[in-house]
Amino acid sequence: MNWITNYVRPRINSIFSRRETPENLWQKCDECGTMLFHRELSGNQNVCTNCGHHMAITPRERFNALFDNGIFTEVKVPEPLADPLQFRDQKKYPDRMKAAQKQTGEKEAMLVATGEIGRTPIVAAAQDFSFMGGSMGMYVGNAIIAAAEEAVKLKRPLILFSAAGGARMQEGILSLMQMPRTTVAIQMLKEAGLPYIVVLTHPTTGGVTASYAMLGDVHIAEPNALICFAGPRVIEQTIREKLPEGFQRAEYLLDHGMLDRVTPRTKLRDELISIVRLLLGMPQAVKGDLAPPEPTAKPEATAGK
Ligand SMILES: [Zn+2]
Question: What are the C-alpha distances in Å from 204 to residues 133, 169, 212, 236, 296?
Answer without folding.
Answer: 10, 16, 11, 19, 41
